[in-house]
Structure formats: C-alpha cells, structure tokens
Amino acid sequence: MEFAEELDQKGKGPRDPLLLPEDGGGDVLDHLKTRDGDLKTRRRKPFLTRRVRWQVAIFCCLFLAYFSIILCRVGTEVSLAAMTDDKELEFTKFDAGTVLAYGNGAYIVGKMVSGAIADTFGGRRVMISALTAVVFFTSLFANVYTKLFFIAIFMVNKICMSSGWPALTKLVCIWFDEVHYGKVFSGMSIASRSGGLASTFVLGGLLSAGLHWRIILFVAATVAFSMMIMSACILRESPGDLGLQTSIKKPKDDFKGGNGHPLEKARLNEALLYFARSPAFWCLGTANLFMTGCMEMQSILPLYFKDSLHLTPGHATLVASSFQAGAVASLMIGGIVYDHIGPRARFLFITSLLGISTGCLVVLWTVPDITIALAGVVVFILGATISTPYYIPVCVFSMSFGGEKYCSTLSSILDMFGYCASIAMDGIMGAMSWHDLFTAQVVSCVMALLFLGIFMCTKAAR
Question: What is the C-alpha separation between 256 and 264, in angstroms, rounded?
C-alpha cells in the first residue's frame, strides 16, 4: 500500500510548498489515447493554480467595485451643475458650493472612522455595505427636491463612499503576498484615476446628450448595484475561507522578539501609539500632504490652459486630460518596477520621478507663453512621474507597517493628511495669481521630494 502511494506521489510530480493540495501544487496529468489503443500519460505544469485564479477574481471584483463607487461620486458632483439649471428646483451656484463644502467635511469624518471599521468588521462586509449604501443614497439623492435633504443625503453618501478604499486595502493585504503589493495597488490606483476620468466623460456626455440629471444618477446607481451583487457573490474575507494558502509576508520583529507582526495582538490605542512613535509614519504623512497639494493642480489645469493658451473650455480640458493619461500609463508599469527592485533602487526610482515632476512644474512656472504641444507633453510627463510616488509607497507602507490587523486604519490616517492638504489648496488656488500658484506648487513638490526621500531611507520602507 505504501509502495502504491509512493508511485502515485511520483506520478503527480513535485509539489510547491507554498500551495496546499487544494491549490493544485502538483503537475497536471493528461491521459492520451494512441492510435494503437494504448494510454499515454503526459505531464504538464498547471497554467493557473486555484489560489491564483481566486486572486485574479478578487482583484477584478475590487477594481470594478471601487470603479463603481467613483462613478457614483462623480455622478453626484456632475449633477450639481445641472441642478442649477433645473426649473423644478430653486438651486443656485451658492447652494451647489454649500453642498460640496458639507460633503468634503463629511468625507473627512468618514476617513476618520472607516479604517477602524474595516479593520474591525472585515473588508468584505464593509465593501458590500458601502456599495449597498452608495446605491441607496445615490438613488435617494435623485428623488428629493429640498436643499436641506440634498445636503444631508450628500453628506451621508460621502461618508459611505469614504469606506471603499480602506475596505479594498484590507482585502488586498489579506489576499496578496507582500512582494506583489506594488503591482496590485498600481492596478487599484488605475481604478481611481481612470474611474474619475471615464465617469466624467461618460456622465458628462450623457448630460450633454440631453438626459436629465436624475436619470444620470440612476444609471450610476444601477452600475453600483450590479457591482454590489457581484461583490457579494465573489468576495471572500481571506484565502483561508476557501482552504487556500494564506498570503506570504516578510518576517518582522514583534514586541516579544518573535517573527510575527508587531501589531498582531495589539489593541487599537496601542496601534495608534505605535504609528505615532514611528519617524517613517510622520515622514510619509508629511510627504503625502505635499504630494496631494501637487496632485490638486490637475483640477485647475483646464482653467490655466484656457487663460494662458486662449483655448475654449473643451479644448483646454482635452489638453489637461493628458495628466490623467500619463498617470494611468505610469501606474501600469510603476508597481511592477517597484516590486522587483531593491531598497536603494527604489529610493533612486521614486526620488528621480519626483525630481522630474518638479522640473515639469518649473517649466509651467517659467514659460508663460507655452505652446499647446509643449503643454500637453509637459502635463503628460507630470502625471506620469508624480502618480507612482503618490500612490505606491503609501499603499505598500500601509499594509506592511499596519499589518493585516490595522492596515485600513493606517491607510485612512495617511489619506487624511492628503485630504486636508487638498482642501487647503482648493481654498487658496482661486486667490493667487498663476505665477504665485506655480511657485507654491514647485515648493510643495520640492518638500515632497525631501520628505519622501527621507522616508525611503528608513527601515520601514524596505
């Protein structure tokens, strides 16, 4: 009997120690029938193991789920402009600004609590709950007529939307090996960048085609509802729920000198104190603050090109959209490069990209009569060089430093650094001349380069 089992094991080929039997770690045997009627066995490697197939399914599900949240967010924001022209409403531009201001405040409140909620209840539950709430409140927003209700629903919807990214971070941290964090979050960041761009063009196009803004919101809510159903069917909290091998993490020294994560058994207050004592946390948080200030420049680029190049609003928007195209192109390869190079090469890679970003801002700052072709190229390079430093180090650090237990909490805290900078930059942009604004942008990019460079030299970034 033992001899038969040994022969059977040899026939299956060597097993990958990282895969459980359910993963299909052994070779696949094909039994072929020859012309003479004899059976011939052919051994081949499996194309995709069961574990990898589930990882691909989880990645695609999270990508589409977050894309649909972005779609609903853009839908509610785009509809505000159309609401001012709706004769059934007494809704002014001042009212639209009030709704946006309250929404931004609610989004910060959501960021404060959504990370801890995702770490407590799990990424799957929070993602499905967030999608369900976004569908409900987006649809409800399309059915009210009173300004007070518009503000209240917009605020609650923003809080629900803010929990999408922490839930996504939680599931990525649990499902994927640490050596693949960069490339996985490159893909997720593409969902954020392309989601905003595609949603603006698609929903704006539907509005231009004559569809009512309420119908636009129902379209966005329908897409999010479909993604909610898909998430409920596909998402799993961890590979262990399916009997698969859990994700592989780099060894770390815990509080007791063991090989587990320092926060594996820590309470929330201990985790927050652990973050606050880390110089790497403060360096990256400060760098994220300055980088977000630079990223906010994209929102005012259409107006800048309209004034400086004397373009129509539509043409100015097209030139400015090269920023998004550069960002998507960069993220397609930035995460792969980040995962496959060492700490010193990462330092040179990230700082070089931010150095080029600074140069692009200097060009926009010092060349007042820039041509359309040069403006498009410079903005494309700016989007390509600033996006990878903006997304990848923060996301990877949140998962490796926060661990599976507190990665969402850390991600939300770092996002709050950036969002505060975003609000501050939006507040001062309108009050500054173009020369002063680009001066502030150059200084902000240099400070981001300084603090991110210091962060990349710390042990926590390796």
Answer: 11
